[in-house]
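Propose amino acids for all 973 sites.
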């Protein structure tokens, strides 16, 4: 039997690898043969099933689960998709066999030949021409195998990669994501001189000191005499550390089989690296033979920066930086886990544009290119090891059989990524309880890389301040804001508090994000956190046969929506019975990277320039960055008058250092009339940035210059009357459904998973029965009293309709019994005739906003087609709301339509869907838009919160019982 199979390595956690080379940071991409493309492929039912003569093909890098096999993607969060206990795997264990012939270049004769498999999940067995070459686990890191003795340069060799899907390792790769199988990153074959750089470690501090440590080996055996290394940084030669060499020479323990050399320099006036100023230098390290010829070389990009913890602050270059982070998976809707350079760049560009400066590589080391891009574009990275044993966390954390795997995974990540300035913190993994295996891994990191802090949520949760635990950061997940603030004020805090996950972005969510940041920025000890998460992991699926579209699907989606006949699949959509539904759709972007409205909220929260206040001397402007001035920005003033449109004027940004403020004169004469007035500073990039062309909006800070004047009382007009039908329902030529009371919204994911929707349904709020109690006509008014009977009590609703100049004024009140504490909304709902396709309003916008997610939506005059008001969340739910609307118009192309003027800024939504349309279906593509508009005017609307995973909204955003009053005027255009 094949020796690799005989070992049954898929059920042996002690076996983390066999024949695998040590991880290192030498970049071998240049000059390598890229073995990407179609490989011969067959999918076996189990790893020890016989390989047949029947081959299909599979694309590498890629997952077979999305390439026309019968093994389809499956989504589970915490639970394993099978019942076998660690380290066992199920008997049905899909195993992909990949084969391809490779012509090994003849000029590689005499060289060391290495196969690099970028990533394979979850067990990789390598054979070359039928002979065993190695084994590797650790699905998100590369594995290298020395094939020198197995291949003949100038001849054709058959490389076989056998990839076993389920293994002991699956139990520690139980992350909240799709399960796939395949070779997910590129495969390379490269050659080096036998005398080669085995590793290069770069340390570069903020005062310009650079140290480069090289490890040198010769596969021939002992190192040849006279080898040496040299280095160049942006063309400047580095100095060999001869003292280091001398000490090594004198040290008997240093053998001739491992060479170590150190290069040094100090760069005067160094340009330091930070997320705001990602300054990089080019380093080339060369390994020379005694005669000076170059045996090997390695290129690196170097950023000079320090990261340290002082007291309870995490400092980058001495500055307490705010961590505006997001959790990011390697994800793509067509390729699953395989992500291209262009895709990763697009991810990071988008994050930059929306004010993020940090990434946690949830929950495994991401594609290596991600770190190059983070260095280049400027992100702080929490680099996380591929360990999540969620379902069996407690057993595994102390299981000695897994000890090796923990240390292996953490150490390999550190060895790969240690030279990236972007990586500022190591993470031991996610949701794996806390045990001796973690301490072992932590010990390895602390010894190997004392230059960076280490974090682990599983340890931190045992005590945010406990110095003995394997976490230098208090990095909880979903901690209530009050707890964070209380900790920071307690006097007990010993570590920086940076939440590893917070503000769960599932569906229409991220309520109270601005409240979090107001507290973070004003409470010493709080430094930020990482939003959960970047992606909605919807997989593009054909509706007719239920299969993933796969690589060929580019162009089958746009603006967050799948093309007709397609949809974004979530858990359960591939016929799995064990799954966790739409919990996989919890990102700030749609599966095609279209931003969700929360990103505009975040952009404003992260604004580098703020309008602090409006005082008599003018507008106080502040620079809220850590390292930069304002010279990279340009701005324009915008004055929005409730009754007078918008005016603009050029703005001059003052020369402010970080943290400074200055007053600038008010750029406009405020007209006497014009009512409420708001001033916005439209801040854009002054030049092309690597992540944004010149003119890209960076933020839109705003101050109110004048409040709305008190409302005048409504004057009824004589000789006109308001018509209602026998049920007291308003008759109006533009309305197809008269205004009635609404106490319900299509539950958001937060409403459902937080238990609110259950309560609302139990109260009967989704189907209240309206009964007219009384209709009275008097002095031109019509008063309609109705009762809405819900199971938890009766809501009394009154509408008073008054004819006014060219319209109808409606005064409403609703009385909620105490039993109805905390409902979704209280307000009016009505429907219009078809054809009113444009909405224009004065209020917050233009993007969707809700009471607890309205910081980033400036007040102004906005104009959006009705079809674009709705946000196509994967699982249909309440969506499309606009906060703080003062008045709006719905019009047809011929300018006919209606206007609604509200008594005060209100939550309004105009969509094509009733709440019941949204609750009736599970996917966006199943929605059938109505021809008219469904309009909600809310006296009160519950905040969104984040209760699908984490805290609900805060009490101030709840809808209280008691009497609610609101009024509005409906006019025909
Ligand atoms: C937490 C996980 O770390 C993350 O992977 C994701 O599942 C997130 O929650 C929710 O989407 S763990 C959770 C049990 C708190």
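Proposal:
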């Amino acid at each position: 039997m094949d020796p690799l199979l005989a070992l049954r390595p898929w059920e042996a956690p002690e076996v983390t690898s066999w024949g695998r080379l040590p991880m290192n940071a030498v970049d071998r991409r240049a000059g390598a043969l890229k073995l990407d493309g179609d490989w011969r492929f067959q999918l076996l039912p189990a790893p020890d099933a016989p390989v047949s003569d029947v081959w299909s093909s599979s694309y590498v890098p890629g997952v077979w689960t999305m390439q026309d096999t019968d093994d389809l993607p499956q989504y589970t969060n915490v639970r394993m998709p099978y019942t076998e206990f660690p380290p066992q795997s199920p008997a049905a264990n899909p195993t992909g066999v990949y084969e391809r012939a490779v012509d090994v270049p003849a000029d590689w004769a005499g060289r060391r030949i290495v196969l690099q498999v970028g990533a394979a999940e979850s067990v990789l067995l390598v054979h070359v021409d039928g002979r065993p070459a190695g084994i590797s686990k650790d699905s998100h890191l590369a594995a290298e195998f020395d094939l020198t003795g197995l291949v003949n340069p100038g001849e054709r060799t058959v490389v076989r990669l056998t990839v076993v899907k389920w293994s002991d390792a699956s139990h520690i790769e139980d992350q909240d994501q799709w399960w796939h199988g395949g070779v997910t990153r590129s495969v390379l074959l490269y050659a080096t001189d036998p005398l080669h750089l085995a590793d290069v470690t770069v340390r570069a501090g903020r005062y310009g000191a650079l140290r480069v440590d090289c490890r040198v080996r010769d596969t021939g055996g002992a190192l040849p005499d006279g080898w040496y290394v040299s280095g160049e940084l942006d063309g400047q030669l580095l100095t060999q550390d001869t003292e280091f060499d001398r000490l090594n020479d004198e040290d008997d323990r240093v053998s001739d089989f491992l060479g170590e050399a150190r290069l040094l320099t100090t760069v005067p006036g160094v340009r330091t690296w930070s997320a705001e100023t990602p300054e990089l230098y080019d380093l080339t390290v060369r390994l020379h033979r005694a005669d000076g010829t170059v045996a090997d070389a390695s290129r690196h990009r170097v950023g000079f920066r320090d990261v340290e913890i002082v007291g309870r602050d995490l400092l980058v270059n001495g500055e307490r930086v705010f961590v505006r982070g997001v959790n990011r998976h390697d994800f793509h809707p067509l390729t699953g886990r395989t992500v291209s350079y262009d895709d990763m760049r697009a991810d990071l560009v988008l994050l930059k544009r929306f004010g993020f400066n940090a990434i946690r590589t949830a929950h495994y080391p991401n594609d290596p290119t991600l770190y190059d891009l983070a260095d280049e574009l400027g992100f702080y990275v929490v680099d996380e090891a591929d360990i999540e044993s969620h379902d069996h966390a407690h057993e595994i954390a102390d299981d000695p059989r897994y000890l090796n795997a923990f240390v292996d995974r953490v150490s390999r990540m550190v060895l790969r990524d240690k030279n990236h300035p972007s990586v500022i913190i190591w993470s031991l993994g996610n949701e794996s309880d806390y045990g001796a295996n973690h301490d072992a891994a932590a010990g390895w990191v602390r010894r190997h890389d004392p230059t960076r802090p280490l974090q682990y949520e599983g340890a931190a949760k045992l005590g945010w301040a406990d110095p003995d635990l394997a976490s230098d950061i208090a990095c909880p997940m979903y901690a209530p804001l009050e707890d964070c603030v209380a900790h920071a004020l307690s006097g007990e805090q010993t570590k920086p508090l940076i939440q590893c996950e917070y503000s769960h972005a599932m569906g229409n969510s991220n309520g109270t994000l601005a409240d979090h940041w107001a507290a973070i920025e004003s409470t010493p000890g709080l430094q930020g956190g990482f939003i959960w998460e970047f992606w909605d992991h919807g997989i593009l699926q054909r509706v007719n046969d239920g299969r993933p579209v796969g690589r060929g699907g580019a162009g089958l989606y746009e603006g967050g929506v799948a093309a007709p006949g397609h949809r974004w699949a979530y858990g359960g959509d591939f016929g799995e019975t064990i799954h966790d539904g739409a919990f996989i759709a919890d990102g700030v972007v749609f599966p095609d990277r279209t931003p969700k409205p929360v990103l505009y909220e975040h952009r404003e929260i992260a604004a580098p320039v703020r309008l602090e206040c409006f005082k008599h001397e003018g507008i106080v402007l502040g620079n809220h960055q850590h390292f930069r001035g304002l010279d990279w920005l340009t701005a324009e003033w915008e004055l929005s008058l409730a009754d007078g449109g918008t005016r603009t004027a050029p703005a001059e940004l003052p020369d402010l250092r970080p943290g400074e403020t200055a007053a600038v004169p008010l750029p406009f004469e405020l007209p006497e009339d014009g009512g409420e007035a708001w001033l916005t500073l439209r801040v854009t990039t002054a030049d092309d940035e690597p992540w944004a062309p010149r003119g890209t909006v960076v933020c839109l800070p705003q101050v109110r210059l004048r409040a709305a004047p008190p409302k005048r009382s409504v004057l009824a007009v004589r000789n006109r009357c308001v018509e209602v039908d026998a049920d007291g329902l308003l008759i109006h030529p533009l309305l197809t459904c008269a205004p009635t009371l609404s106490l319900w919204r299509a539950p958001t994911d937060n409403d459902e998973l937080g238990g609110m929707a259950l309560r609302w349904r139990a109260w009967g709020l989704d189907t209240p029965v309206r009964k007219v109690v009384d209709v009275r006509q008097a002095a031109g008014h019509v008063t309609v009293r109705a009762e809405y009977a819900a199971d938890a009590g009766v809501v009394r609703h009154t509408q008073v309709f008054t004819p006014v100049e060219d319209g109808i004024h409606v005064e409403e009140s609703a009385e909620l019994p105490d039993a109805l504490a905390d409902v979704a909304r209280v307000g009016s709902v009505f429907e219009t005739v078809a054809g009113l396709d444009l909405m224009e309003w004065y209020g917050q916008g233009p993007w969707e906003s809700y009471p607890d997610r309205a910081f980033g939506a400036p007040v102004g005059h906005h104009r959006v087609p009705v079809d674009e008001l709705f946000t196509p969340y994967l699982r249909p739910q309440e969506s499309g709301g606009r906060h703080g609307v003062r008045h709006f118009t719905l019009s047809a192309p011929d300018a006919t339509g209606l206007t609604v003027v509200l008594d005060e800024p209100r939550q309004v939504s105009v969509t094509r869907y009733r709440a019941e349309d949204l609750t009736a279906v599970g996917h966006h593509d199943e929605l059938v838009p109505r021809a008219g508009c469904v309009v909600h005017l809310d006296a009160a609307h519950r905040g969104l919160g984040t209760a699908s995973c984490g805290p609900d909204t805060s009490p101030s955003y709840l809808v209280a019982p008691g009497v609610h009053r609101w009024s509005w005027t409906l006019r025909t255009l």
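The pocket of IPT is lined by residues 77-78, 175-176, 363, 430-431, 477-478, 501, 504, 532, 583, 586, 949 (CB under 6 Å). The domain at 608-706 is CATH 2.60.40.10 (Immunoglobulin-like).
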